[in-house]
Design a protein that fits this description.
4 strands; alpha/beta; Macrophage Migration Inhibitory Factor; four-stranded mixed β-sheet; 112 residues; 3 helices; globular
């Protein structure tokens, strides 16, 4: 199972090109943490979650990294590094936003 990165609360009205650029930045951030074994965009799933309410979009951006199985045996230092790298990637695109990154691991998940 590959890591899943979900990004919430992005500014309203981003173009497809802007989302593609952010996608590439997030993948590059994951690749930069060599211990994860991510080598290209096929090794990670990035989702931009549409928000139901426009109020406050772009002020705080939240990214959740759900990598339960790949991260299960990773150290806290590696988890912190990947959170920091993804946070930096998002912050560079949206310098006025506060960026919060959560690593959800380990977590139990069953596929049915």
């Amino acid at each position: 199972m590959k890591p899943i990165v979900k990004v919430y609360c992005l500014p309203a009205g981003l173009s497809e090109n802007q989302l593609n650029d952010l996608f590439k930045d997030i993948v590059s951030a994951m690749i930069s943490v060599e211990e994860l074994g991510v080598v290209d965009e096929d090794d990670v799933l990035v989702l931009f979650v549409p928000d139901m309410m426009a109020y406050g979009l772009g002020k705080e951006v939240l990214a959740e990294i759900d990598a339960s199985l790949p991260f299960q045996e990773k150290t806290e230092e590696i988890k912190n590094r990947v959170a920091t790298e993804i946070g930096k990637a998002i912050q560079e695109r949206f310098p006025g936003a506060e960026v919060l990154v959560k690593v959800l691991s380990p977590m139990v998940m069953n596929r049915v």
